[in-house]
Amino acid sequence: MKEQFTISIYTENLIGILHRVTTIFTRRHINIESITASESEVKDIHRYTIVVSSEEDKIKKIVKQIEKQVDVFKAFYHKNDGIVYQEMALYKMPTKILSQTREVEYIVRKHHARLLAVEPDFTIIEKTGFKEETQELFEQLKPHGILEFVRSGRISISKPMKEFQEYFTEVEEASKY
């Protein structure tokens, strides 16, 4: 049965590594729903957060295959209940809409969004939350004239207490021998 999984990959920030990782998903015909790359808590180590829907046995195989890649230190997969996660969305709207009606202001407040920038021609609204929440805000703002919309990929932190730094230290120790 298909479930949603979040895969975290720790690697050096090298040209081509993301392509090699995404090719693994392509070969297995698994669509990547979102992908985010950033620095990690360990100096010079980057983290890719990839969200996919598949069967757990396929995800286990993919994670093992990812870890075989040169330059990948460690990869983990988690079900949604094993992580804390969020996404961010930005909505660009005509400023005149906000000044003409209180309805948009009410929608923004109801969704706990915030005004990020107010310019003469446009206003940028920011919403952080689950994909469903940012999508719901989009649907409610859409009739009022959204000029642009963008949503980030998922960012997540695992609930288990073992830190990546512990895994990284284990890998460094093992590579000495």
Describe the structure in your own words.
The protein has helices at residues 17-27, 56-67, 95-100, 103-110, 131-141, 164-175, and strands spanning 3-12, 32-39, 45-54, 72-79, 83-94, 114-118, 122-129, 148-151, 155-158. Helix content is 34%, strand content 39%. Strand 6 (114-118) and strand 7 form a beta hairpin. The strands form 2 sheets. Strands 5, 6, 7, 8 and 9 form a 5-stranded antiparallel beta sheet that branches. A 4-stranded antiparallel beta sheet has the order 2-3-1-4, sandwiched between helices. The longest helix has 12 residues, at 56-67. By secondary structure, the chain is α+β, with helices and mostly antiparallel strands.
Brief summary of the model shown:
The protein is α+β, with helices and mostly antiparallel strands and 177 residues long.
Write the layout of secondary structure elements.
Blueprint: E1 3-12, H1 17-27, E2 32-39, E3 45-54, H2 56-67, E4 72-79, E5 83-94, H3 95-100, H4 103-110, E6 114-118, E7 122-129, H5 131-141, E8 148-151, E9 155-158, H6 164-175
Antiparallel strand pairs: 1-3, 1-4, 2-3, 5-7, 5-8, 5-9, 6-7
Question: Could you spell the SSE succession in H and E letters?
Answer: EHEEHEEHHEEHEEH
Helix content: 25-40%
Task: Name the average pLDDT.
Answer: 89
- Strand runs, count: 9
User: Rg to the nearest angstrom?
Assistant: 20 Å
Gap between N and C termini = 41 Å
Low-pLDDT stretches are none
- Provide a count of the helices: 6
Which strand-content bin applies to the residues? 35-45%
Approximate shape:
elongated
Largest sheet: 5 strands, antiparallel
Structural class by secondary-structure content: alpha+beta
